[in-house]
Amino acid sequence: MQKIIQFVKDSYGELRKVVWPTKEDVVSSVKVVIVSTVIIASALGLVDVLLLLGVQAIF
Predict the structure, then answer these.
(1) Structure confidence by residue, pLDDT tens digits, 3-17
(2) Cα atoms found within 13 Å of the Cα of residue 16, Cβ hemisphere only
(3) For 6-54, what is each residue's pLDDT tens digit?
(4) DSSP 35
(5) Nearest CA to 42 among 50, 53, 54, 30?
């Protein structure tokens, strides 16, 4: 039981050393993720449509 208590104390001490991101950093990162997701989804959608048209043209 002593090891578990020591582990929790050590974990808490390590969490106090963490440099947490600011709200602005988080918002900026979320914007990057959303924009990149939309761009990649659009590119994959375009490839899908082009492949569909190509297969329809062949058959």
Answers:
(1) 999 999 999 999 999
(2) 6
(3) 999 999 999 999 999 999 999 999 999 999 999 999 999 999 999 999 9
(4) H
(5) 50
| DSSP assignments along 11-52, one per residue | HHHHHHH--PPPHHHHHHHHHHHHHHHHHHHHHHHHHHHHHH
Coil, strand, or helix at residue 56?
A: helix
Token pair for residue 17?
């050393």
**What are the respective helix, strand and coil percentages of the chain, to the nearest 5?**
90, 0, 10
The single residue listed with the structure tokens 């659009």 is 42
Residue spans per domain, the chain: 19-59
Q: Is 4 helix (H, G, I), strand (E, B) or coil?
A: helix
Give dist(CA 42, CA 44) in Å, integer. 5
